[in-house]
């Protein structure tokens, strides 16, 4: 059982989300006004579903604000289909997105995948390419400097680093990290890698190589 917050300006969509996720035993709170979320205590939630196109404050802006205070997965619900818009959304701190209209089976599976990822037990510490991975704390250190990765960015780095030297496709990375198989959703990996590289370059690390037509490799 998880505590889930769903934010969308359409009451009908919120009702559908609540009924679907309550079938899996989750406690679902719904909010129609993004401004209200700014005043809420968000640390109690295990996952947040966040609509992109809302009046007042849009989902991208709200995500950037709350990501500073919450550590749980944030998944966008969006009718926006332009890839550059979706990729920009991931850059705001979200972990994933689901395009509207979505099937209830997809919604439930995607939520379960993110919750399972949060429950994975991490104990080891390992070093590779001059970086130290602390798997329980989900952080990467370069000497005494912490690399400011989001949870999803950390998981991608960890997966690539644990398989260093191997070329992995976007689909393989997406399924391994998020636990949900889907070709279109693997495009999110491209933007995550872009953000990861920018952060690693700041600590003088460039371990991720693009293998054109195939995927990525951690060297």
CATH architecture of the largest domain: 3-Layer(aba) Sandwich
CATH class of the largest domain: Alpha Beta
In spatial order, strands of the major sheet run: 2-1-3-4-5
Q: The CATH topology of the largest domain is what?
A: Rossmann fold
Mean pLDDT: 87
Number of domains: 2
Number of helices: 8
Runs in which pLDDT lies below 50 for 5 or more consecutive residues are none
Proportion of beta-strand residues: 15-25%
| Largest sheet: number of strands, sense, barrel closure | 5 strands, parallel
Q: What value does the Rg take, in angstroms? A: 17 Å
For this entry, give a set of tags:
219 residues, 8 helices, four-stranded antiparallel beta sheet, Arc Repressor Mutant, subunit A
Note down, in words, how this protein is organized.
By secondary structure, the chain is an alpha/beta fold. The chain folds into two domains: 3-119, Response regulator (Rossmann fold, 3-Layer(aba) Sandwich); 125-218, Arc Repressor Mutant, subunit A (Orthogonal Bundle). The protein is 39% helix and 22% strand. The chain is built from eight helices and twelve strands. The chain has helices at residues 11-22, 34-37, 59-67, 83-91, 104-119, 151-162, 170-178, 187-201; strands at residues 3-7, 27-31, 47-51, 74-78, 96-99, 125-128, 131-134, 139-142, 145-147, 167-168, 208-211, 215-218. The strands form three sheets. Strands 2-1-3-4-5 form a five-stranded parallel beta sheet, sandwiched between helices. A hairpin with a 3-residue loop joins strand 11 and strand 12. The longest helix is centred in the middle third of the chain and has 16 residues, at 104-119. The radius of gyration is 17 Å and the shape is globular. The mean pLDDT is 87. Residues 123-219 bind DNA. The modification 4-aspartylphosphate is found at residue 51. One of its GO terms (cellular component) is protein-DNA complex.
């Amino acid at each position: 059982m998880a505590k889930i917050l769903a934010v969308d300006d359409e009451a009908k969509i919120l009702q559908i989300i609540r009924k679907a996720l309550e079938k899996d035993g989750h406690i679902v709170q719904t909010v129609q006004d993004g401004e209200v979320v700014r005043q809420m205590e968000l640390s109690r939630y295990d996952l947040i579903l966040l609509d992109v196109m809302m009046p007042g404050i849009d989902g991208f802006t709200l995500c950037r604000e709350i990501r500073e205070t919450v550590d749980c997965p944030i998944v966008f619900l969006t009718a926006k289909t332009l890839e550059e818009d979706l990729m920009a959304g991931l850059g705001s701190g979200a972990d994933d997105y689901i395009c509207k209209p979505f099937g209830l089976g997809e919604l439930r599976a995607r939520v379960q995948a993110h919750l399972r990822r949060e429950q994975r037990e991490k104990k080891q510490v390992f070093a590779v390419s001059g970086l130290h991975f602390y798997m329980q704390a989900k952080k990467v250190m370069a000497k005494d400097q912490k690399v400011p990765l989001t949870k999803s960015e950390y998981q991608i780095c960890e997966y690539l680093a644990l398989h260093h030297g191997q070329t992995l496709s976007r689909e393989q990375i997406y399924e391994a990290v998020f636990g949900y198989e889907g070709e279109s959703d693997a495009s999110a990996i491209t933007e995550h890698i872009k953000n990861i590289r920018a952060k690693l370059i700041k600590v003088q690390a460039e371990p991720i190589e693009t293998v054109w037509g195939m995927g990525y490799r951690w060297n």
